Amino acid sequence: MALISLIISAAALAGVLVSLVYQSRQTRISQEGSIRESHRELLMLSLNDPVLRACWGSPSNELPNDQARQVMFANLIVTWWQTQYVLKELGEAELAISLTTFFRGGGRPHLLEQGSPELGSCGRGYAFQAQEALAWR
């Protein structure tokens, strides 16, 4: 009887542990999403307002208005792909095609003005950076 109770308790404890790990991952994803959404909102506000754009203190402040807006928009595109990739909504093959098309097409000059956005610091973020580096070539 004690053995059955021990097995049930161990299974319950394992279930709680799995639940906590899952909840921790979901909380991290939610926090990252909130941070990215705040960043997006700030960019959108400054996209059409040169006065607000100057607050970023970036090299794009020296560009003509239309070109500065293109740099900011290119940043939004690449960070959107990064978010999709980190959340596993975009596969490696799709990412490679998107980045290659972007950097070899019209997007490359806009990011070259300012440099690539910061793209993650762990796990799939590093993989994204590797894919991005390949596409720059």
Outline the structure in words:
The protein is mainly α and 137 residues long. Helix content is 77%, strand content 0%. The chain has one domain (22-136). The protein has helices at residues 2-47, 50-53, 65-86, 92-104, 108-114, 124-136. The longest helix has 46 residues, at 2-47.
Please sum up the structure shown.
With 137 residues, the chain is mainly α. Helix content is 77%, strand content 0%. The protein has helices at residues 2-47, 50-53, 65-86, 92-104, 108-114, 124-136.
> Which spans have pLDDT < 50 for at least 5 consecutive residues?
112-122
Strand content: under 5%
Please, how many helices? 6
Given the C-alpha coordinates, what overall shape results?
elongated
Number of DSSP-assigned strands: 0
Helical content (DSSP H or I, runs of 4+) = over 70%
Largest sheet, if any?
none
Taking Cα atoms only, what radius of gyration do you get, to the nearest Å?
21 Å
Mean pLDDT: 79
When the domains are counted, the total is 1
Q: End-to-end span in angstroms? A: 66 Å
**Which structural category do the helix and sheet elements fall into?**
mainly alpha
Helix/strand order, N-terminal first: HHHHHH
Which descriptors would you attach to this protein?
137 residues, mainly alpha
List the helices and strands and how they pair.
Layout: H1 2-47, H2 50-53, H3 65-86, H4 92-104, H5 108-114, H6 124-136
